Amino acid sequence: MTALSPPRTPPDTPPPTGGRPSRRTRRTRRRHLLPDRVRRAGLPYLLLLPALLLEILIHLAPMAVGVLMSFRDLSQQYIRDWGAAPWAGLDNFRVAVDVDAPVGQALLHSFAVTCAFTVLAVGLAWLLGVTAAILTQDGFRGRGVLRAVFLTPYALPIYTAVITWSFMLQRDNGLVNHVLHDQLGVTDSPSFWLIGDNSFTALVVVSVWRTWPFAFLILTAALQNIPRDLYEAAQLDGAGVWQQIRRITLPSLQPVNQVLVLVLFLWTFNDFNVPYILFGKSAPEAADLISVHIYQSSFATWDFGYGSAMSVLLLLFLLVVTAAYLLVTNRGGRGRKQDA
After folding, report:
1. Membrane spanning segments where (predicted)?
2. Considering the entire predicted model, what is its pTM?
């Protein structure tokens, strides 16, 4: 009687006793796992590809074209074929930064107005936002309705809101003069809000009215992450409301405030819609923001090379300020963590 031979094990199958797989088996497994790893690693980039293409098409490509235009003497006669415009080199930038010439002085004045406007608008928007967020932090009857009312300016379309403000700021039949002059008697005569020095105040008021609900929304969400136990412990220790805000609320909101202030600064400094809708194509000298100034220099005089140069200078300024701000805030955050 012939003895049965044991079954042969396939070469790629590991031994049934749990021994180490052969070299050929390991190579086969690596070949099968490699495509899976590639797919898993490349999936996030594949999902980001549409957004990256749109970013290149909408922002980066026009930005690159604008930088190239700033080095050319691009006027109205070359607008159809801007590549044929004469090469100007750094002449457009020299004209922009020459503060002794009228053109440079006008740009410097617009830059100063924009800086003052940004500081006031961002500071007031943040102050109103954090105040409203703290006041509506605790539950009370009608809190949801009040929060919805606070967010109304941010929800309205910008053109509708600013056009409404332009009607309210009219001298003869505007609501603002009707209340301040006719009803309250604060002013001796109806004021001009859309021309003259008062135009700066009107611009700040409209900008703050538009942006402070965003600060309120972000800070309200951030307040929800502060543990209530901290406030209860502070109350037991005898801390008052202001001490709780100073010692608990504001330090806890600092990471959010860093991002919020930066976003508000970039939005406000680059704001074009509000002054353009409020004042039209020609803004008053007191409210001559740099965004409107660049628009007027480009499309009123048809000097697109000079307008592009000013836009590049504005971009460089914002990049430097943003980098410095992030550097300072990150160093401050690391220093506080080490002290803790």
Report:
1. 45-71, 111-136, 148-168, 200-223, 259-279, 304-328
2. 0.80
d(CA 154, CA 211): 7
Alpha-carbon distances, residue 168 vs 86, 176, 210, 316 (angstroms): 48, 6, 15, 37
- Residue 22 CA: distances (Å) to CA of 7, 15, 71: 19, 9, 66
Nearest residue to 134 (alpha-carbon basis) of 247, 214, 250: 250
Contact between 261 and 126 (Cβ < 8 Å)? yes
280: number of Cβ within 10 Å: 11
For tokens 């910008």, the residue is 158
Nearby residues of 312 by Cβ (< 8 Å), 6 or more positions away: 66, 67, 70, 93
CA distance 245 to 249: 5
Q: Which CATH fold would you assign to the domain 102-302? A: MetI-like fold (1.10.3720)
